[in-house]
Amino acid sequence: MIDLSKKDSDISHYKDIWVFIEQTDGKPAAVSFELLTKARELASQRGCGVAAAAVGKSVSHLAADVFKYGAEKFYIVENEIFADYRTEPYRDAICELVIKYKPEVFLVGATTQGRDLSGTVATALRTGLTADTTGQEIDPKTGYLWMTRPTFGGNLMATIYCPKHRPQMSTVRPGVFKAVPVDDPKEGEIISEKINFTEDQIVKKILKKVISGEGAVNLGFYDVIVSGGKGMGSKENFGIIKELADLLGGTWAGSRMAVQLGYIPQSRQVGQTGQTVHPKLYIACGISGAIQHLVGMQTSDTIIAINTDRDAPIFDVSNYCIIEDAVKFLPKLIEKLKNMQKFGG
Predict the structure, then answer these.
(1) What is the distance between the alpha carbons of residues 114 and 122, in angstroms, rounded to a whole number?
(2) Contact in structure between 21 and 59 (CB atoms under 8 Å)
(3) Is the CB of residue 170 less than 8 Å from the CB of residue 144?
(4) Which domains are seen in the chain, by residue range?
(5) Where are the beta strands (DSSP E) in 103-155?
(6) How far apart are CA 281 and CA 186, in angstroms?
(7) pLDDT per position as a tens digit, 64-93
């Protein structure tokens, strides 16, 4: 049980930016290193340190990567009981660490596991949690963490802060930030804590594990993404999107409207309610550019937008703007690229 009487109510005693290092069977989630990169930026603004925390059967081997991405300390809780993720034991372990070491900010990846864990940790610690944030910065006057996220169906951006409780908690979806290792990584400090749990204390039991990746795709793995929206006109026209993606050695995706119209499966959606990506090249075809879509792809290195509406919001974040009907323009582009490949162009 979590003993909240041990929690320090004086927020001035809390310091450092923490990142939860998510892992499954000892393999870390990429979003953890993306968040460590962001944590370094926030820590430089706040003038504090960066730390990481992990729970599992065995997690100490993750230290090299954790320090590589800028953590100065790595808090770990290892026990056979943490071999598989279960809400209550992971919650209690994290809460024990937070109560003892008092981080000012605690960042968690907005994955299936991260969303489940962050909510129950915030509730147990009686602090605030801003979910699915797309932007974070330190207020230079107050030192509070400003957390920005889309709201009202992605039509507005809200900036939220937590002035009275600690830690300030935030989840961030994979792909929002880029994982950048430090130039000169140093060996940090590993702090191992023992949490006394027995299996009898945990109500939930894992009876069977079923692993299935059918229909799932991680768009974040691709350097080139060709994405289509309502302007593609039909599910059949997405064949053009797929052909161009294959030609460029990338993958295909679409907008929320394309999902709602039945053109593509939700597993291929880019945006606030889909996946966040930052490929080297993102080609938006027939996508107007609602905020909920822009927050999912606007950090791409190069963005090419094709749309008939010259006032489409997608053009505001694009490097190259093509005012054309994508359904008519893409076949010509594909033909041109094929000829270039044929003749070695």
Answers:
(1) 12
(2) yes
(3) no
(4) 4-201 (3.40.50.620), 219-342 (3.40.50.1220)
(5) 105-109, 129-133, 135-138, 145-151
(6) 33
(7) 999 999 999 999 999 999 999 999 999 999
